[in-house]
Design a protein that fits this description.
Elements lengths: L4 H13 L1 H18 L8 H8 L7 H6 L4 E6 L14 H11 L3 E7 L5 H4 L8 H16 L6 E5 L5 H11 L5 E4 L10 H12 L5 H11 L11 H11 L15 H16 L10 H4 L2 H14 L5 H11 L6 H8 L16 H6 L2 H11 L8 E2 L2 E2 L6 E5 L5 E5 L23 E6 L2 E6 L9 E9 L2 H9 L7 E5 L4 H4 L8 H9 L4 E5 L12 E6 L16 E5 L4 E4 L3 H6 L20 H6 L11
Parallel strand pairs: 1-2, 1-3, 3-4, 11-12, 12-13, 13-14
Antiparallel strand pairs: 5-6, 7-8, 9-10, 10-14, 11-15, 15-16
Helix pairs in contact: 5-12, 7-8, 8-15, 9-10, 9-21, 11-14
């Protein structure tokens, strides 16, 4: 299958600029594979005794003799995250499947997994982005024992999957299969939840009503059902070839979910260097795989967090992604999905309407995906045009994915998209560079020009709203929220008040060096502004009353101040001491000091 010319052009551009770094990476993982000689390294006797001391008696002979592949399980299990609670049962399922396939499996290590839903608007959110790199580091520690032939990764949520991918790529000579847990069943509809949030922001309903609505929305095991970063992660792992086909959005604690988990373990055994289908993760995640991921991001209206995470993930594989690549691919990728916050449906509705198999069929048919890629399921993305089911005999089977959408209000074909482009633009101008997601923003709000109102925290915005100071047209400039300033927290608590004002007919927009993720919704938001304010970026020179223009049509982010006056202004400063200690933040001083820019992936590596 040939790809559309822009897809090919961007892929070639990425490969060209990455030639040196990708070459060094491939040489490194090939050297690691050669040193292993097709099997895990043989350790000293005392080392091996420690590694396998607690294993089941039946596993030890194979492990000591190194005559059976051994899987490492890297798990982000905890029972505080609804999405990760189902993983409690997975290690035993994986061990059982590995034994049946002639191998063994061990939990290599755990990685931290924080819930952004719990920490939204709280001090802990200032650790959220940094947790991604901690997870990558913890993955490296888990696999450093060198007793594994492949690894399976148990993770779902926002920073966890990107962190696991970065860690896996450091051991790129090992095969890697990512094992999802699935979304919770549908609860309170997302549009009803959003309405209650806005009513609470206006003071029209109390905390009890708000808590009741939130509990009905987030009510059981599994991923939150809106299409934020967690579910975007699952889409990416499938379209980039690291999941089993059709496995991303199967609900937890079902027979099909368990069958897919066991199948993932068997597949990990099958693709080790001991067999004939060796598939190291460092080869799977190449330039074409990352372009496929970005196309999937645009086609589904996925999380803007991935304009940061995909850059960092690619860098771990020696691949240099830039925001311009995202923007150029968005121009040719149609929006095929309407999942909240870009619509009323949740991911269960998306899955029922045809899900990933239908989506990839449409994108492949339109020449928007590279078919000729390596995946954990075999060579070629066409292998993913199937969906799993449990047959009458209880065995896992694969059926052809739907050829037509089951609900065109949720999922459409490439010939009749919701809009012709992916709805993500890179903005550039007097205030630096930023990204904006327009797929949920009404077209008449794609350009906002209004006076600035400057804030240094989302709490200041909320306080001004409660005082009635914001009932007018304005652009909220919320700065000193970048990675160096305070870890670049998500600023979701800005959305209810700004949404209320927009619904009143006010022309409002947001400009910030912080994040919003997949839930930015209907308010035009220029986010990830770089350089950030703490680095002396132009956003630090904005003053109350300056006319700011956010133009998602022309791709501009400007302040309408006389050039001489603008150039003469000194950047503002902020007291950030409150973000430097407490709730563990003092432990991350080195991260804040060493982190890169948002456009470079906001990584400490």
């Amino acid at each position: 299958m040939s790809v559309q010319s822009r897809i090919a052009e961007v892929t070639d551009r990425i490969a060209g600029r990455s030639r040196e770094t990708r070459g060094r990476y491939l040489a490194r993982i090939e050297a690691a594979a050669a040193a292993a000689g097709g099997r895990r390294p043989r350790l000293g006797c005392a080392n091996e005794a420690h590694a396998f001391a607690a294993c089941a008696a039946g596993d030890k002979p194979h492990q000591f003799a190194a005559d059976a592949p051994n899987l490492g399980i890297v798990t982000a299990y905890n029972d505080m995250l609804s999405a990760h609670q189902p993983y409690e049962r997975f290690p035993e399922l994986i061990r059982r499947a590995a034994r049946a396939a002639g191998g063994t499996a061990q939990v290599a290590g755990g990685v931290p997994a924080m819930c952004d839903g719990v920490t939204q608007g709280e001090a802990g959110m200032e650790l959220s982005l940094f947790s991604r790199d901690v997870i990558a580091l913890a993955t490296g520690v888990a696999l450093s024992h060198q007793v594994f032939d492949a690894a399976v990764y148990l993770g779902v949520c926002d920073k966890i999957v990107p962190g696991l991918v970065i860690g896996a790529l450091s051991f790129g000579h090992l095969p890697a299969v990512f094992v999802p847990a699935g979304p919770m069943t549908s609860g309170l509809p997302n549009d009803e939840k959003a309405k209650i949030r806005q009513l609470h922001a206006e003071g029209k309903v109390g905390r009890e009503a708000l808590l009741e609505a939130e509990a009905k929305a987030y009510h059981g095991p599994g991923t939150c059902t809106f299409y934020g970063t967690a579910n975007t992660n699952q889409m990416l792992m499938e379209i980039m070839g690291l999941h089993l086909p059709g496995s991303s959005f199967v609900n937890p604690n079902t027979g099909l979910r368990d069958a897919l988990t066991e199948a993932a373990a068997r597949r990990a055994i099958a693709i080790t260097a001991r067999g004939n289908d060796y598939t190291p993760v460092g080869r799977v995640l190449d330039e074409k795989a990352f372009v496929n991921g970005i196309v999937g991001l645009h086609a589904t209206g996925g999380s803007t967090n991935h304009t940061i995470h995909l850059v960092a993930m690619a860098a771990a594989a020696g691949i240099v992604l830039r925001w311009d690549d995202f923007s150029d691919l968005a121009e040719v990728t149609p929006l095929l999905c309407r999942i909240y916050p870009n619509g009323k449906a949740d991911v269960n509705h998306f899955h029922a309407a045809g899900g990933m198999g239908f989506l990839m069929r449409e994108l492949l048919g339109a020449g928007l995906l590279h078919e000729d890629v390596e995946t954990v399921w075999g060579k070629g993305l066409s292998n993913y045009l199937v969906e799993p089911a449990v047959g009458g005999d209880g065995a896992l089977e694969w059926r052809e994915a739907p050829v037509a959408s089951g609900d065109e209000a949720v999922l459409r074909g490439a010939a009749s998209p919701f809009q012709p482009t992916g709805g993500l633009r890179v903005l550039e101008g007097d205030l630096g560079r930023a990204v904006i997601k327009t797929s949920a923003v009404a077209p008449e709000r794609h350009v906002i020009e209004a006076p600035a109102r400057v804030f240094h925290s989302q709490e200041e915005v909320q306080a001004a709203f409660r005082k009635g100071e914001l009932d007018r047209d304005f652009v909220a400039v919320v700065r000193f929220q970048g990675p160096k300033a305070n870890g670049m927290p998500e600023l979701h608590k800005l959305m209810p008040p700004l949404g209320v004002l927009q619904d009143r007919g006010r022309r409002v927009a947001l400009v910030t060096d912080g994040r919003l993720s997949g839930a930015s919704g209907k308010v035009p938001s220029a986010i990830h502004v770089t350089p950030e304010a703490l680095e002396g970026g132009p956003i630090a020179r904005v003053r109350d009353g300056d006319m700011v223009r956010v133009d998602a049509v022309a791709g501009r982010l400007d302040v309408l101040v006389e050039p001489a006056e603008w150039a003469a202004r000194a950047p503002a400063t902020a007291d950030l001491s409150a973000s430097q200690a407490g709730v563990g933040r003092e432990l991350f001083a080195a991260f804040r000091a060493g982190v890169g820019s948002a456009e470079a992936g906001a990584a400490v590596f």
